[in-house]
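User: I'm curious whether this sequence folds into something compact or stays loose and floppy. Could you predict its structure so I can see for myself?
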Amino acid sequence: MAGQQPQPRNVVVTGGGTGIGLAAARGFAEAGDRVVIVGRRREILEAAAESLGPAVRPMVCDLADPEAVDRLVARLPERIDVLVNNAGSRETASGVGTRAVLARWRGDFERNVLTAVLLTEAVRDRLPSGTGRVITVSSVAALRGAGSYGAAKAALHAWNHTLAAQLGPSGVTANVVAPGTIAGTEFFGGRWNDAESNRRASRTLVGRVGAPEDVAAAIRFLASPEAGYVTGEILHCNGGELLGR
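Assistant: Here's the prediction. I'll summarize afterward.
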């Protein structure tokens, strides 16, 4: 009927308690969707859900643990219209020698790759044909290079190509958003200050660093009905810090 409001979608956002994930969850909730935010830290998730309103539910899960993912999936909606794989962080283990190298590489792979792959595989049968959307958040580090972290993010790009090919025949799309420097996240920890912000802003074409809402807008576009003919792509969201390739 003319003027009829669209039905709310079921949206799952991992890493939804802070930063980009929180901004994405807010945008979906404000559009009238039902949102589940997933993460490892209960207090942060619950505080985020309370701030976003009754349409948002928090669910605690270590997404690199297959058994934990299975338990999570049992609690998720039977239909998942949009999956946003945003969970990820940089492994902070330091030291030298092969054991330290192993800890860094394994940590970055588990935190950034397995957290996306395991959940996506577990829910792919719940993505509705013709309208389902998978959006995975990567990083400019995948192209610029940043050791084990950049390698893990680059692995998401390769995986998404395969995922898009697998889901394409059912009309489900799979795309990546690759942010540049984004303020207002936990990525930089105590290393972020005005000097660092200004330095990074000078590397962009628009003269500023990004905000979580900039990336959330890109995520919402790829999740929209209008993006139904876009799949297998990497959408760069970096203000011209690094041009797409």
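Summary: DSSP finds eight helices and seven strands in the chain. The helical segments are 19-30, 42-52, 66-73, 98-123, 141-144, 147-167, 194-201, 212-223.
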